[in-house]
Amino acid sequence: MMKLAVFASGTGSNFDAIVHAIQNGELDAEVTMLVCDRVGAPVIEKAQNYEIDTIVFSANVYESKAQYEEALLKDCRERGIDYIILAGFMRLIGPTLLEPYRNRILNIHPSLLPAFPGKDAIGQAFDQQVKITGVTVHFVDEGMDTGPIIEQEAVRIEDGDTKDDVVRKIQAIEHKLYPSVIRTLKIKEESI
Fold first, then answer.
1. 90 is in an annotated binding site
2. Which burial class, exposed, middle or buried, applies to 143 when counting CB atoms under 10 A from its CB (0-12, 13-18, 19+)?
């Protein structure tokens, strides 16, 4: 069974979607741990309710990014983590984690990359008055939302849509697309 570590910083709606897909038998995997960099983030309580090991850290207590990534890498190795799944994790991954998990760290982003990378992609799309935006799942590399694209799905912004409407449309796609992409990785691994 594929072992996942989910890294999140916020509410955890994609974390929830992944766990639900596992519980419903749609995804043959196990979320072995949640890593969160924000004390008090709602995703922590969700993980505790699912009885999933949770690691909460504050980056500013470490001397460097490499130091906290080394601690996280140790935790991942001890638990036999196959993939790191970023789900609203608001930190760039550095080489300490990236190198041992190259092509095994995934991110989901609320735009059709390369359009609107970085923070508030939905707001960027809304401000630019685009009619089509979407969701991208990609492998993580050294850049911000620059890694190889695995899957994308478009979302139409209709006349009269508010930003909240677009957020709801994006999240509905994310919650189906992310578990689907993870399932595809499992299938590819089994065929090797």
1. yes
2. exposed
State pLDDT tens for residues 129-164.
999 999 999 999 999 999 999 999 999 999 999 999
Is 14 among the annotated ligand-binding positions?
A: yes
Neighbours of 153 (CB within 10 A): 15
- Which DSSP string corresponds to 48-87? HHTT-EEEE--GGGSS-HHHHHHHHHHHHHHTT--EEEES
Show which residues are catalytic: 109
93 is in an annotated binding site: yes
pTM over 0.90: yes
Domain borders along the chain are 2-108+139-150+175-191
Domain 2-108+139-150+175-191 is found in CATH 3.30.1370.60: no
Of residues 55, 46, 39, 48, the one with CA closest to residue 18: 46
pLDDT digits (tens, 9 = 90+) for 73-101: 999 999 999 999 999 998 999 999 999 99
